[in-house]
Amino acid sequence: MLSRSLIQLYQNPQYHGLYMEERGPQINHLGFADDIIIFTSGRRQSLKLIMHTLATYERVSGQLINKTKSHFFLHSNAFRTTCDRIRKYTGFQQKETPISYLGCPLFFGRPKNIYFSNIINKVVNKITGWQSKMLSYGGKATLVKYVLQSLPIHILSATTPHSTIIMQIQQIMADFFWGWRNDKRK
Length: 186
Known about the structure:
By secondary structure, the chain is of the alpha+beta class. It has two domains: 2-96, no CATH class; 113-185, no CATH class. Helix content is 46%, strand content 14%. A two-stranded antiparallel sheet has the order 1-2. Strands 3-4 form a two-stranded antiparallel sheet. Strands 5-6 form a two-stranded parallel ribbon. Strand 5 (71-72), helix 3 (80-90) and strand 6 (93-94) form a beta-alpha-beta unit. Helix 1 packs antiparallel against helix 2 (44-61), helix 4 runs parallel beside helix 7 and helix 5 packs antiparallel against helix 7 (163-178). The longest helix is centred in the N-terminal third of the chain and has 18 residues, at 44-61. The model has no long low-confidence stretch (mean pLDDT 87). Residues 5-105 form the Reverse transcriptase domain. InterPro entries: RT_dom (IPR000477).
């Protein structure tokens, strides 16, 4: 229901969404289950239209938007007055990027290795739980193929990290398979 209302908002000539590039498509919103990200130019009229749409959604659905869990994000070069205006019209607090949405980092600019530390930690944490177990090469191969290699699939299909991140994940898996820990064979 909210998604449909936001699509109608997108068709309103007074609403200005976000353009990733000057002649590219206008981005309106991204939603999954009860999470939604709304993209806008930050202009007063657009903010008013968004808040009106959200208020209508609350009234019609009976569901309330939790303003303490709602945030807005701006590029680091955005003017302070823009930040203040968005805070005033929405009642939301500003949050810094990168953020994680459905396990994928959302950020402005070029991807930094630190943005992908979460996926590396997931792989390492899985392996840590298996380190104490006596596993054959066949058992390790099965775990690498069906568990470890499936962990980064979602994030790698949605974003493009540096090749160093991919190589680091592959090295962690290889070290687990061959039994290396801290540059020493177990």
